[in-house]
Structure formats: C-alpha cells, structure tokens
Amino acid sequence: MNPDLRRHVEQQRVAMLFGNTLAYTESALLMVAFMALVVWQTVGWQTLLTWCAGVLLLQGAIQWASYLYRHKKHSTLAARQWGWIYAGIVALSGIAWGAGSFLLHVADNPLMQAFIAVCLAGRGTASMLAHAYFPPALYTFAVPIFVSLTWRYVTFGETANVATGLMWLVFLGYVLLFGHRQARVIIDSIVVRHENEQLVEELRRKNAAEERARVRAEEANLAKSRFFAAANHDLRQPLHSLGLFATTLRNALTDREQRELVDHILHGIESLDSLFEDLLDISRLDAGQVRVKSEHFRAEAVLERLRTAYGATAASKGLRLRIRPSSVALRSDQQLLFRVLSNLVANAIRYTQSGGVLVALRRRSDAVSVEVWDTGIGIPPEQHERIFEEFFQLHNPERDRRHGLGLGLATVRRVVQLLGYSLTLRSTPGKGSVFALRVPIGEAARMGDAETTTEHVVPDLLRNKLIVVVDDEASVRVGMTSLLQSWGCRCVAGADGDEVLRAIGGETPDFIIADLRLRENRSGIDVIRACRAALGVEIPAVLISGDTATERLIEVSVAGLTMLHKPLKAVRLRAFLNHTLAQQRAPLPIRA
Q1: CA-to-CA distance for 291 and 279, rounded, in angstroms?
Q2: What is the mean pLDDT of residues 347-374?
Q3: What integer best gives the mean pLDDT of the chain?
Q4: For residues 299 and 330, is the Cβ–Cβ distance under 8 A?
Q5: Bridge partner residues of 511 (DSSP)
Q6: CA–CA separation, 352 vs 370, rounded Å?
Q7: Which strand (E) or helix (H) includes residue 266?
Q8: pTM for this prediction
Q9: What SS3 state is found at 467?
Q10: 543 and 561 in contact (C-beta within 8 Å)?
Q11: Residue 20 exposed, middle or buried by CB count within 10 Å (0-12, 13-18, 19+)
C-alpha cells in the first residue's frame, strides 16, 4: 500500500470511528439506566451514583472529542493522532465499566452478579462494532472490562467461579478475533472503494476499463459474503453455549424473580438469534434446502396469524392495521406464504409513519391477488428492482439497525420464485405502495382436518436415553450435557468419535448430537458414520452448526442428515429429539 493510500485509509477509518460516537453514547446511556434500575435496591446509592457519574462523564468526553474532531481543520496526517486520543478516552471508559463488576457486586447474590457480568460482557462485545474501525480503541476498551470480570470471579474462589473467570478471557479472545477480522474487512472495503473511485474517473476517459471495474465489484461482493459467513459461525458458537447454560440455570431455579431475570437473559439471546436467522434464511433458499409443501387451506388461517403477529406493532406506532376477512380457499405452502406476507407487512409498518396498512384478497379468475397496501414513504420507480437486493435499504443510508438488515425483501423475492408466483409492485413516492402476490385458488373440499383437530402432542421420551454429544468446544459439551441431564438423559460427551466410542464401552446410544465442523478439518458427518459402522446400528443423529454456507447445507443434505443451527433454542432441540425418538420403532441394521 503506497503512502498516499495508507493516509487515505487511516483518515477514513478514524472518520468512521468518530462518526459512530452518537449511537455508541446512546447505547451506553440505555445500558447504564437499565443496570441502575435493576440494582438500585441492592447497591448503596452513593456507590451506584459514583459509578454512573464516572461512566457518563467519560461518555461526555468521547462526545466532546468527537465534536472537536468534526469542527477542526484537520489534515490527513493528523488522523492517527485523533485515533489515539479516542483510544485513550475509551481506555478510561473501559476501566470505569470494568469497575462495575466490583462496585456493583452484591454479596451472597450470585444471580445478580451474573446479571451484572452479562451486561458488562455485552458492553464489551458491542465494542466490536463501534471500535473495530481503529483496533487500538477496541483493545483499550474491551480488555479492561473482561480482565475485570475475570479478576472478580477468580477472587470469589471455588473451582466453578475460577472456571467462569477463565471463560471471560476466552470470550475476550472471540471479541478481539472478530474485531480484528472486521477491521481487516473495513480496510479492504475502503481500499476497494478508493480504487473504484479512481476507476470511475478513468472510465470517463476510457470505456474499455468497464469490464475491470465489474470484476473488482464482484470480488468485493464475494469478500463481503465470506466475511458474513465467518462472522456468523464464529459468533454463533459462544452464543450457543450461553443459551445452553442460561436454559439449564432457569430449569434449576425455583424462585420466580430469579427465573424472570434469567428470562431477560434468554430474551437477549433470542434477539441476537433473530439477526442470524435472517442470514440463515437466505443461505437455505440459495442452497435449495427449502421444499414447497402445497396444501389446500383457508386464507383466513394466514390472515389471522398476521393480525396476531403485527396488530400490537402497528398500534404502538399509531397506525391502523386492517386485514379484511376472507372465506376463500388457497392452494400453496402455508408456512412459506405466511413468511412472504409477514415480511411485506413488517416492511410496510416499518416505513409508514402515519395512516395505516391494509391486507386484502381479490379474486382473479383461477387465482387470488393477495395485496398489501400502505400509506408510507413510497418507492421511486428507479429503485423498484434494487429494494429486493440483499442489504439494500431505502432511506436508511446510516444503516440504523432499528430498520433491520435489509434482508426482508430479498427473502421475499427468493420465496416467491420458489413458489413460482408473480409479485408486482405499484408505488407513488410520498403516498404509499402496493405489493400484490398472485396465489392459486384452493378447493374447500380438499382442505385437511389439521385446522379443526388439536395438534398431536409427542410424549417426552428422553428419560434414561443415552445421548452422545460430539463437539470440539469444551463449553458447548458442558452446556449441552447439563441441559440433557436436566431432562433425565444419560450423556456421553467427547471432542471426536474415537473419544465417545471409548466412553460408551460398546453400549448403543439412542441418539447422536454432533457439531458439523470439528478440529483438524474433521466433520460431524464422518463421526456419525464411524459410530454407526462401529456399532452396526443406524443410530438417529442430528448435526448442529453455526455454519450457514451454501456448500455446507448441500453437503449435509447429500449425507441424508438434518442440521440445526446455533444458537439452538432448548425447546426446539427437545421437540426434535422427542419427535425423532417417537418415529423410531426399533434399531435398523446399517445400510451398506
């Protein structure tokens, strides 16, 4: 990288760093208020006030530095100096946040201490997004927080507390690793953007360079896809472990207030999980792993689900959500149709500030036009195609996460193509939009009994079942074993197939739960095959992974196995195990 380009990259990174300070400070204010609200009755008000004042004072210093940076007449040579000024301030801020693990400590209340630890860890983790533009700022902020958490737990004594303290150091490693990767991607994107700007100037003089610009754009897009795949997998792993431990802890608690506190932790985990699910849906559709299950059903069944799902959301914005009832029968995949309409309604509510949203059905010869109307901001004609692209959001250039990731309409387009339907868009900027989906008419006489009969409940078949867990992450093995044992299962866990085969001593397990990606480039698919071959029985099995790459999904499908994605909800895992065991009548001899 030549000196001029290096200075340009440094200037852009520091500008992005300071451009993030307002959102970063807002999130800090919310976190301080939330923590103070929870602990004010158990921590002395002088201590709590001192800690809050210190944290907020340093956030004010960050905002003041940002103000000076934006209003100074700076040169590109001074950019790195401003970055180090910012890093110095957030170093003090990180120390102040880390001090909360000691100042907000409540004696003889480990659950409250765990809550404080999770909040501080969340703050340290959030710094990946706020400070990755300038890695020294990430290091100076995140390290004091996690080191303080480690020190706090180690000083408690006892093996479990020491292990928890060491876990925070491991989590710090994840944070720094991910932050380093994100910083690398940011540099690459700045370089690519700079080079593309130069190419645009050159293209004005020479049209022959157009093909070169196209290739560079494709390479940049591929790098972005690789980044999201790696980030998705790396973050799902610790989040999966945290979810297992939190669920096990909730099952062991009997006090209602303590269970509610753990429920808040689980709710936060589910919120992060929903972000990953949007990315996962795109991967599944691209990999051809979603199958259409056509059936005849009442349109009102889908409409009622929309009323239930979005009525409160619309009302909270002061909007009127009208969903006209309909007696017509449809022929489609009910779940996929609901997913399409759900995304369209959610998008309409998100971009409508006054008025309302209408969902109505119109008969069109042998089909029904399912239409979603809104009185929102509208979409210019030149953007009608772009809104269906991944990560594209109209009127959201600042990438406000409250408006989602920009994957909703990209998912809609893929599902509509899978169903073989047509989707049309009419829109007037400033007045609103209409999305119309053409769905085949169904036959009322062919509708199943599923809508009138109660759902069959699979009994709990897990008690005393021997479950084998294969995962190269020790924290995942411990968390999964604790969860399964709380359900009455017997567990054998190991890092690879040889280890679990030695541990079971020839006994045939009832189920195998294996991670897809193991160490030394090993695969959970190979472990399952080896266990089945060694025991001569086709043991029921499932793969669990945070990997959403299309090639991985195809690989699992070709192997004839099912894959569940991290972070995995405990209720979903339990339902899957019970359902599979209920279908298993007797051990089948392994197929050749």
Answers
A1: 18
A2: 89
A3: 79
A4: yes
A5: 467
A6: 19
A7: helix 256-286
A8: 0.38
A9: strand
A10: yes
A11: middle
CA distance 31 to 132: 20
541-545 and 563-565 strand pairing = parallel
Q: How far is CA 201 from CA 73, 206, 210, 219, in A?
A: 27, 9, 11, 20
Contact criterion met (CB below 8 Å) for 561 and 525? yes
Q: What tokens were used for 339?
A: 């997913």
Q: Which of 51-65, 165-179, 211-225, 427-441 has the lowest mean pLDDT?
A: 211-225
Tokens of 184: 């690398």
| Pair type for strands 329-332 and 295-298 | antiparallel
**Distance (Å, whole) CA 132 – CA 577:** 40
Residue 38 pLDDT grade (very low, low, confident, very high; cuts 50, 70, 90)? confident
The whole-angstrom separation of Cα 275 and Cα 86 is: 30
Residues 486-503 have a mean pLDDT of 90
Calpha distance 44→103 (Å, rounded): 9
540: preceding bond cis by omega (within 30 degrees) = no
Q: Are 42 and 106 in contact (CB under 8 A)?
A: yes
pLDDT in tens, 78-113: 788 888 888 999 999 999 988 888 888 776 777 888
The C-alpha atoms of residue 527 and residue 415 are separated, in whole angstroms, by: 34
Amino acid at 513: I
Q: DSSP string of 420-462? A: T--EEEEEETTTEEEEEEEEEB--GGG--GGGTSPPPPPP---
Angle at 346 between CA 344 and CA 351, to 5 degrees: 95
Give the separation between CA 483 and CA 245, rounded to whole angstroms: 8
Return the structure tokens found at 504. Answer: 């079971």
